[in-house]
Structures are given as structure tokens and as C-alpha cells.
């Protein structure tokens, strides 16, 4: 029996996602009644994530599926919408949201942003072994296995993903040789737990003022940056002409093309460079340099920052960041469609490990934020720069204000850099816990 969704054509699925976003924006614009009360509790960005997840859960759409022919031949299918959104719309959004950025004001955000990022990293490093220890008391078989089937080997890939990203996750799979036939289960845990945590963070965005008050946080630097960008936007604001819109699109996707061109060459160059390293440990640390996605995001951000020092910055007044926000919402919807809520019960044991692991990460972040009085923005983005990487950190940052998307990218780059090293440290601890009597 196959698991083919009702809609398999990406053109139709994209239209369905856009209708969902249109419905969300229409209802969230209501100034009174049920919808006004609803969106006072649930942020529109969260709904942009959950509605596609509901479509997937109901079997209307799917990120990937299988069909079985009459002869028993299994064929794999997948939607290309997430790839399109993450490779084209995400870097374009980062460019348009960075055009009006004030880099001096970004750096003036201070040390707390980095402190929360590294707190998130530590939370993942210690969370894994603690989760194994706690779950082993209830269900030893869940954290067992031997040789390539050992669960701690599989969990090493989660550590790589939740500190760095896809490149670091792949590196951990290679380093510890987890059984690739079982790897799909770990990928599922990654998607479910990380996306649920992202959903919780997005809900928190709607309650930022209340959370900051509880944390006794000083948000003056963030407010100053938002006010500075907003003031510049108002100063240059104009009714955009067709020429303005075409130039904005040209800046966005022209930069994306340069970023892809450079990423293709740099990833090949560094792949050869990394493969030439004799020390296996050193080679594993720098694996992320072979990632096209890493270079594509990095180059797009660097070019956008350079453009922010030119007259291109004036296109903020014509709606550059608003167009970027449209792209971000489409990306969020494509991420949401990867979530099938019914499959959670199929991997209860591994989901339990992941949930405990992420809870430890969250508790540590909240504890440190309370101690150093860090704003919720730093907590949320510091976490997503680890757990979600460059695909999710800008989304969460932009949920606070479009001008803050760059902060998410800059922190996510740190995640790529420390991902494999920190994940190896986490895996060593998980291995020690797993083999202890």
C-alpha cells in the first residue's frame, strides 16, 4: 500500500500553501471579533507553520511519499517546494531584509547574543547524555543497540544537526558509522522535535513583552536597532513604481545567482581541500566548508551587507523588507508541510529521547537568560541558530522585526563553525553513558 497524498503536483500544492497564507493574513488583519482574539494568543507566523502541517497530517500534501506498482516496485517521490524555498527564496529574503541594516547597531547588541547562542550549544551537548540516562531508567531497550545499530551513534547525527546543520549531521553519520537503514528514524526525530520546539518559540514571540518583563531584560539595544531601521524606512518611504519593484527583485535574485555561482565553486574547492587533510579528526571538523548551502547563505549575506553601504539601501522605502517577508512566510509554510503529526506515535521511544534532550536545552537557556537578564529575542534566536541553523534562525529573528533577520544568520554561521566539534564532544558523553553499567 502506498502513502501518496491527495495532491502530488507541486504547482497545486504551492497554490494551496499560498491560499493558506492568504487566509491567515486576511483573518489576522481583523480588528475585532473571534479572529482578533485568536491572533492575540497565536502569532500569524505560527499559523503559517501549523496549517501546512495540518494539511500533511490529513494526507492532502506530503514532503515525500512512495508509490507501489502492481508488480510490487516501490517508487520514491518528493516535493521540491522546500528546496525551492530554502535555496532561492531564503537567500533572497536575507538580501532584502539586510539592505537597510545598520551593522554598527547590530554589533551594539552586545555580548548577551553570543552568550545565549553558546548556552544553547552547551544545552545540546549535555542534553543528549542526560536524556539517554533518564530514558534508560524507564526503557533501557530504547537507548540500547550494539555496533552500527547502537542508538548513541544515531543520536550523534541529531547532535550534529542541532548544533550546526545538515553538513554537520552528515559528518557525524560518517564519523560514527550509524546503520543507514535506521538513519531515517533519526531524521524523523530531528524534524518532529526541532519543529515542535520552533513552534513553541514562535508562540512565545507573541508574548515577548510579558516574557521580557519576567526575565527583567534590557531590550534597549534591540529597540534602538528596530527604531533606527523603522525611521529610515519611513524617511525613504514611497509608493513603489513598477521600476522600483523590478529593481528590488533584480537585487534579490541577482545576488542569489552570484551566491549560488560562488557557492558551487567554493564548495568544490574546499571539498578538495578538506579531502586533502590527513588527520581524520581535523577533516571532520572542517566538513561544513564543503557545504554548498553554507557558502550560498554566507555569500548572500555578505553581498547584502556590502549593498547596505550603497544607494541600494534606499529601496527599503519601496518595500524591500516587505517582499523579503513574503519569501520568509512561503519558506515557513514549506517547512510546515514536512511535519506529519500522526507519525509521532510510530517513534515514541526516540521522540521521548529527543523531547527530553530539547527540554534540557530550553531549561538551560531560560535559566541563563534569567540570570544575565537577556531578552527573549536572544534566547529564541540563540536557540534556533543551533537547532534550526541558517534556514530557521532568520525566520525567528524576522518574527520580532525584519531588520533583525541578519542577527539570526550571523549566529547560525557560528553554529556551522562549532557544530562538528561540539557534536563530537556530545557523542563521547552519550557513548560513555550508554556503556556504563
Features:
2 strands; single chain; two-stranded antiparallel ribbon
How would you sum up this structure, described in words?
This protein has helices at 10-28, 33-41, 44-57, 81-98, 103-107, 112-138, 151-163, 166-176, 183-205, 208-215, 220-235, 242-275, 280-285, 292-307, 320-336, 348-372, 376-387, 393-400, 405-435, and strands at 64-68, 74-78. It is mainly alpha-helical. It folds into two domains: 1-79, no CATH class; 94-435, no CATH class. A two-stranded antiparallel ribbon has the order 1-2. A hairpin with a 5-residue loop joins β1 (64-68) and β2 (74-78). It starts with 9 loop residues before the first helix and ends with a helix.
Main beta sheet: 2 strands, antiparallel
Oligomer: single chain
Shape: globular
Structural class by secondary-structure content: mainly alpha
Strand order of the largest sheet: 1-2
Number of helices: 19
Separation of the first and last Cα atoms: 43 Å
Uncertain stretches of 5 or more adjacent residues: none
**Helix residue percentage:** over 70%
